[in-house]
Design goal:
Four Helix Bundle (Hemerythrin (Met), subunit A), 8 helices, about 170 residues, mainly alpha
């Protein structure tokens, strides 16, 4: 079995982001049918000390595409704040992230394994090698934020199942 860095990262990001796009669509339909304000939903927090729904979506995109771009540049920083983003803007962000991930080539991503990068957050700087960063930092964070987004919509009553989260599973062809 030959599994590449591209297979483990980009293909996985695309699968789950496709599921996230579907989850967000179902969340919007549920809100429309149940008089739920999407403006309030994007600021919803599971707990006071957790970041809101909009951050979870932004962070999911950032942990996918942003981590690849960070390894390419040699520097990764936390996701940017996107002032004034609304629910439709979050949906567009997911769609744009999918489009940009699809533009990456296998060779481009597979060449990142040995590349050095620094994760910088404020004054803290952590050194990584590309493959270790993507597999031990990016993927767990990606799943955390995608799952948290899913959970927030479920708590608000959106009818979702595991297959909604999983997206297009890659069956044997």
């Amino acid at each position: 079995m030959n599994t590449s860095l591209y297979d483990v990262t980009v293909k996985t990001y695309l699968q789950v982001l496709g599921g996230l796009a579907n989850v967000l669509e179902k969340g919007a339909a549920h809100a429309a049918g149940n008089d739920i304000d999407l403006g309030e939903l994007i600021n919803y927090r599971l707990q006071e000390d957790m970041l809101p729904f909009k951050f979870q979506v932004i962070a999911t995109c950032h942990q996918g595409l942003g981590c690849i771009r960070g390894v390419q540049a040699g520097l990764f920083e936390p996701p940017p704040t996107i002032p004034g983003i609304d629910y439709a803007g979050l949906q567009t962000l997911v769609a744009d992230t999918i489009t940009e991930l699809k533009s990456l080539t296998e060779d481009e991503v597979n060449s990142l394994g040995d590349k050095d990068l620094t994760f910088k957050m404020g004054e803290m700087e952590l050194p990584f090698q590309g493959e270790d960063f993507l597999l031990s930092f990016s993927l767990p964070n990606f799943y955390f934020h995608a799952t948290t987004t899913y959970d927030m919509l479920r708590i608000k009553g959106t009818q979702l199942g595991k297959m909604d989260f999983l997206g297009a599973v890659r069956f044997k062809q």
